[in-house]
UniProtKB/TrEMBL annotation:
It comes from the Bacteria. InterPro entries: GntR_C (IPR011711), TF_FadR/GntR_C (IPR008920), Tscrpt_reg_HTH_GntR (IPR000524), WH-like_DNA-bd_sf (IPR036388), WH_DNA-bd_sf (IPR036390). It comes from Bradyrhizobium huanghuaihaiense. Keywords: DNA-binding, Transcription, Transcription regulation. Transmembrane segments: none annotated. This is GntR family transcriptional regulator. GO terms for molecular function: DNA binding; DNA-binding transcription factor activity. Residues 14-81 form the HTH gntR-type domain.
């Protein structure tokens, strides 16, 4: 396991707990802190320019979200998923995604097309300026709007839970030039397929859409294990 580096330490003190939580979450989900990295309180205080109280509060919140693991006599580390855990989690997410996509009535209402097109424009605008937080939020908004069209809020809630669970695995993909370009193209194609009648093509595209991030995370943890 690697320790976090303090060379990036913030010089401005930040005592807003939400800000500390957000910065820690971003560093984890965008890959600045690798899976398995140790998260010592002193290093985090230096990195974010904040107090021990707010660092501890941020770690508790991050543990609740599933991106940090805290263990007795070990301390806090960035949540690490084994290759088998990643495959099993994505198996469930893929099943939920396929079912939700198949349940979307086609051709989709113009209102849904317009909503997704507007969200896609927001997504592209954030991507153009490399606003990672904005890219992540616009991406999730796009997918939740898409899957909400399936008409089953319980299925959508389950999908959202698995989107959150895979956040550390998939968000780094949004900071990758190749992965981001592919994501943008696939969003556009999803919108086009919603105008037709091929539910199976839409469902398969939605499943294919998540494969790049899964493969990337598996490669990252394999590289960490190799080192």
């Amino acid at each position: 396991m690697s320790d976090i580096r303090t060379a990036d330490a913030m010089t401005v003190r930040r005592d807003d707990p939400d800000d500390v939580v957000a910065r820690l979450e971003e560093d984890i989900i965008f890959g600045r802190l690798a899976p398995g990295a140790r998260l010592t309180e002193d290093a985090l205080m230096s990195r974010y320019g904040t107090s021990r109280h707010f660092v501890r509060q941020a770690l508790v919140d991050a543990e609740r979200r599933g991106i940090v693991r805290r263990e007795k006599n070990v301390g806090a580390t960035v949540r690490f998923y084994s290759a088998e855990e990643v495959r099993q989690i994505y198996e469930v997410r893929e099943m939920l995604t396929r079912q939700a996509a198949l349940m979307i009535p086609l051709p989709a209402p113009q209102g849904l097309i317009d909503e997704l097109s507007a969200l896609q424009r927001q997504y592209c605008a954030k991507a153009d300026v490399q606003d990672l937080r904005g890219i992540h939020e616009a991406n999730d908004a796009f997918h939740l709007a898409l899957f909400s069209a399936c008409g089953n809020p319980y299925l959508v809630r389950s999908l959202q839970d698995y989107m959150n669970l895979t956040l550390p695995m998939r968000a780094k993909n949004l900071a990758d030039r190749e992965g981001l370009a592919q994501s943008r193209r696939q969003h556009e194609l999803m919108i086009e397929l919603l105008k037709g009648r091929d539910s199976w093509a839409l469902a398969q595209l939605c499943v294919d859409h998540m494969q790049f991030s899964k493969s990337d995370y598996l490669a990252r943890i394999a590289g960490e294990a190799g080192r």
